[in-house]
Amino acid sequence: MQQTDVDVLVVGTGPAGLVLAAQLARFPSIRTRVVERRDGPLELGQADGVACRTLEMLRAFGIAGRVMEEAYWVNETRFWRPDAGQDGGIVRSGRVQDVADGLSEMPHVILNQARVHDHLLDQMRASGLEPTYGAELVDLVVPDGPGPVTATLRDVRTGATESVRASYVVGCDGARSRVREAIGRQLHGDRADHAWGVLDVFVDTDFPDIRFKAAIQSAGHGSILLIPREGGRMVRLYVDLGTVTPDNRDAIRTMTPDDVAAVAQRVLQPYTIEVRETVWFSVYEVAQRIADGFDDGVGRGRAPRVFIAGDACHTHSAKAGQGMNVSMQDAFNLGWKLAAVLEGRADADLLTTYDEERRPVAQELIDFDREWQAMLASPPSEQVADYFVRQGRYTAGVATHYPAGRLVGTDEHQHLAAGFVVGTRFHSAPVTRIADGRRVELGHAATADGRWRLYAFAGADLDRWRSAIGRLDGGSLDVIGVVPGDSHTTEDLGLPVARDHAYAATTGGRVGEEDIFDLRGVDPERGALVLVRPDQYVAQVLPLDGSQPTSRIRSASSAREPMPSFV
Hints:
alpha+beta, 24% helix, 14 helices, 567 residues, seven-stranded mixed β-sheet, 27 strands
């Protein structure tokens, strides 16, 4: 049997697996192997919604622009209810802006999951990493003591087996995860009791909102969540098929695309819809479940060496539009931590923070999905639109808030930069790059390179700002300077950072332009240091004149360098 040694074995090339692989591929010293049971890349994907937060992340990989160019942009969500004046018909009851102003510089878009995969694969291949297709995991052995995890792979075409020894294994292999089974983790939650049919179709219709995202509830015929697709003509229909019982389960599971389209026609009356072509079809039963641990060490008194991500550790319906997005964020959270440990910049105990941070996020997704799908399946109510508006931050993907702990500090100095909330993702805002006078987003200075970033906002005392930056430790810390005022008054400031790492709050001369100090509540007199993790989450807000302000956070973790040190 052939035997190979790697640092990380990634099992599965879904969205979590590919984000993790694209992240690890950026570290040439890390030996990464990616395996997939399918015989090639995904061609038609199940998920299609790409949240604002996901695009912020994809921007760090350099592919957000391509995704946005191909995608359908969700600008409005419209709501339909039964028409009280027309028996059996529906009427538009409301409309809302899909992403509220100020939530993100990125839009909410719709793009076939397979195309998102393609862009991530391009990033991997640019770094020389190619998945091994047609290889399935048949066994996984985790030793009780030190030593590598041993995985046995089988070529699905020839039956030949291969032994892979890995320092770490990550199961991104879906709801029926063999990796999860191998480490004795189980999914717990609700039994599936409600069914939905999904159609990607080209249609002829007189329904007026066919190119808007729409939540449609009828009187007695069920409901539809309508999602326009990229390209201008295709739409996705999530069609409510009702409660699943022992008597109807077989009938529901054997429904054809024509059967589901007929239900959609009844929901949409008096409007008509005729399917010209079905591109993709599925019937699924909703079940909200979460694993009892996201690695093999939780609750067992040992350091983790095997992890699960995405559908392998949380399952839910597709109507929340968060499955692919939360799965990618799982991988982004884990990827930089694995790289830091494998490159010797942190102790292995850092990896315990993956489960600590991501399992609560997955539980929030389960709870949201349960409420949202129950509302869509319930009798028509104005609560649907109200709930959607209230949950706007969540559906945009920007509601995650990690509590204070090993990698997140306290809010002691939050008042210095109120808009950069400790524990949440770094909320970008427009600035002007001093090197060339170009108006850019400050958050776009971050790339998926595994580095911590410290945004140093100058106050009125520029000498204090220069002194603070001069004391900062380099290495894995990327220091970015931001000065108040416009880019035309910076020539004689004696910038303590490279000009392409220095930004001004405004350009000067533009009427009504926004100032990042005002937008994010940065104290213009005292300034602030905003420390940001490699996965773009704010770790701490600190004063410019602080003395070793991260020592309190570092002492809470046994990781050698969970946060960069500076004095």
